[in-house]
């Protein structure tokens, strides 16, 4: 659906990136200087790379001028026209589409008569996304759209980007260096390091790959699993089923039956050789060790199969040795319910 190939030599930096991705959100992830912006600028047509191929569906965009590419671009800051109302900003460059539907989807109906100066950062960013959408783009480029917002504003805007992903048939190339954000939004993850692709694939596969952990940052590593809401309990917990059994989490504000994606951070998973008794953690699942990777510090990342899913745990190398952790080891993973924050549970999306 989306195919990108870019080769370019900057003085002292060689960019050589190629990936293909299905519909949905393709997240370009990498540390500062990995080459994300250069890829996006090539896709937009503002950087003339030595070699470039950009295909959306059956259409090659790389030979076209910047306007002819019809790419909607949303930057870190909203770049709205300050002297125009929200309505006029949305109408500017509108090529078609249903303004009412876009306004409803992004929850900005109450803002239409305001000027950008009277909007919060999150509201302004939703308007910027609406404006990009109404230009009927073939592709939406969201370049760190949440980076300038505080945590509360990020939490407010994320569900709208999920709706964009699930309800609008426009592919989205999403640049971010926040693992939490890509875990929540990405259909496909392209992990970049020093101008090259380290790994590309479905978000759950890439995020549970121990070899990608150094790129993601060991503190942020964590796996994604799909779960279904089973019941809301009176004591404030929600029971979910996943391939490894039942998961009890703090209340998840979704209806019974809904499918959600849950990010289980590696640092919240403990290992035990025998089924632990008399502990406060509510989630204990049998696991088989599938891969180990030592970090640069005292830690080791362990990949485990739980049911049909892969999860990660972060343990010290000392514990790994003491417990005799090797491929094929069988034991138990313990996930503390309260460790899984609400922001780590997100809308799932149709499997593509
Ligand atoms: N016009 C240029 N001339 C020379 N070097 C450049 C140019 N543009 C980018 N680079 C170099 O290419 C590398 C990748 O930069 P790029 O901005 O694409 O990275 P990034 O992953 O987007 O980083 P960030 O997250 O900091 O925005 C950097 O080393 C940068 O210095």
TrEMBL record:
ABC transporter domain: residues covered: 1-219
Cited Gene3D superfamilies: 2.40.50.100, P-loop containing nucleotide triphosphate hydrolases (3.40.50.300)
Domain Mop, first and last residues per copy: 278-344
Keyword Ribosomal protein applies: no
GO cellular component, one term: membrane
Keyword vocabulary terms for this entry: ATP-binding, Cell inner membrane, Cell membrane, Membrane, Molybdenum, Nucleotide-binding, Translocase, Transport
Annotated SMART domains: AAA
Tagged with keyword Nucleotidyltransferase: no
Gene Ontology molecular function terms on file: ABC-type transporter activity; ATP binding; ATP hydrolysis activity; molybdate ion transmembrane transporter activity
SUPFAM superfamilies associated with the record: MOP-like, P-loop containing nucleoside triphosphate hydrolases
Cross-referenced InterPro entries: AAA+_ATPase, ABC_transporter-like_ATP-bd, ABC_transporter-like_CS, Mo/tungstate-bd_C_term_dom, ModC_ABC_ATP-bd, Molybdenum_import_ModC, Mop_domain, P-loop_NTPase
Domain of life: Bacteria
Name under which the protein is recorded: Molybdenum ABC transporter ATP-binding protein
Organism whose genome encodes this protein: Gymnodinialimonas phycosphaerae
Gene designation per UniProt: modC
């Amino acid at each position: 659906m989306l195919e990108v190939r870019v080769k370019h030599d900057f003085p002292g930096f060689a960019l050589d990136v190629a990936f293909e991705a299905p519909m949905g959100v393709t997240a370009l992830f990498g540390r500062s200087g990995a080459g994300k912006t250069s890829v996006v600028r090539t896709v937009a047509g503002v950087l003339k790379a030595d070699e470039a191929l950009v295909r959306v569906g059956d259409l090659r965009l790389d030979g076209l001028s910047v306007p002819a590419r019809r790419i909607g671009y949303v930057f870190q800051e909203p770049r709205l026209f300050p002297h125009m109302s929200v309505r006029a900003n949305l109408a500017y460059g509108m090529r078609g589409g249903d303004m009412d539907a876009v306004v409803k989807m992004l929850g900005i109906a109450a803002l239409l008569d305001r000027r950008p100066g009277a909007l919060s950062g999150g509201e302004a960013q939703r308007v910027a996304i609406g404006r990009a959408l109404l230009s009927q783009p073939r592709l939406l480029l969201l370049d760190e759209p949440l980076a300038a917002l505080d945590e509360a504003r990020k939490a407010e805007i994320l569900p709208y980007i999920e709706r964009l992903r699930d309800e609008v048939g426009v592919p989205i190339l999403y640049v971010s260096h926040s693992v939490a954000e890509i875990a929540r939004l990405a259909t496909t993850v392209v992990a970049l390091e020093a101008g090259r692709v380290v790994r590309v694939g479905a978000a759950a596969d890439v995020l549970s790959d121990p070899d990608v952990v150094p790129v993601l940052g060991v503190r942020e590593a964590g796996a994604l699993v799909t779960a279904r809401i089973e019941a809301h309990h009176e004591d404030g917990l929600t029971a979910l089923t996943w391939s490894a059994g039942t998961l009890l989490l703090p209340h998840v504000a979704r209806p019974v039956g809904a499918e959600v994606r849950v990010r289980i951070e590696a640092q919240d998973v403990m290992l035990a050789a025998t089924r632990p008794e008399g502990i406060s953690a509510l989630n204990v699942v049998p696991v088989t060790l599938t891969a180990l990777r030592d970090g640069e510090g005292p830690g080791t990342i362990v990949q485990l199969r739980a049911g049909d899913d892969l999860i990660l745990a972060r343990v010290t190398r000392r514990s790994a040795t003491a417990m005799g952790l090797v491929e094929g080891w069988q034991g138990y993973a313990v996930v503390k319910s309260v460790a899984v924050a609400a922001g780590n549970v997100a809308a799932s999306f149709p499997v593509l």
